[in-house]
Amino acid sequence: MNWNYKELLPADFAADSRVWVYQSSRLFSMGEALQLEDLLNHFTANWKSHGTPVKGFGTLFFGQFIVLMADENATGVSGCSTDSSVRLIKDIEEVFKVHMFDRQSMAFVVKDKVQILPMSQVKYALENKFIDEDTVYFNNLVLTKEELENNWMVPLKDSWLGKRVLRNA
Length: 169
Prior knowledge:
Oligomer: single chain
Order of helices and strands: EHEEEEHEEHEHEH
Shape: globular
Structural class: alpha+beta
Strand order of the largest sheet: 7-6-8-9
């Protein structure tokens, strides 16, 4: 799989643009991915904050991660506009029968595929060499475009999760 997602991010968005990453509990099919792209394009084209259009971007990466981005240098994102994006993701959960808010599921690149592990099994996976400190981990806690570019896909040892699980491994 081609893991180079950075070239797909909008070049005209500021480095401090806000980012939200939602990880699906499963891979979306090609047909679902096409539907999702339409939903995301429609949402970002109509995204508003107190009636003012939000400079937004939304896409599906690797068939499993929805990334929403708002360039607040154009329009600040209010609580209401953030709520509307959360409603979109909840609608996606319902329509596609997936979970998008499970923060206990960790995603890694294993054998050139996205593999999801419950947080409770990460240490087991390390001990049994399913993953190691250099395994790429998806740090879905990134908050800005710059963090998305530099800290989203990182070796486990360079992540918050690595600091938590490797010290005791």
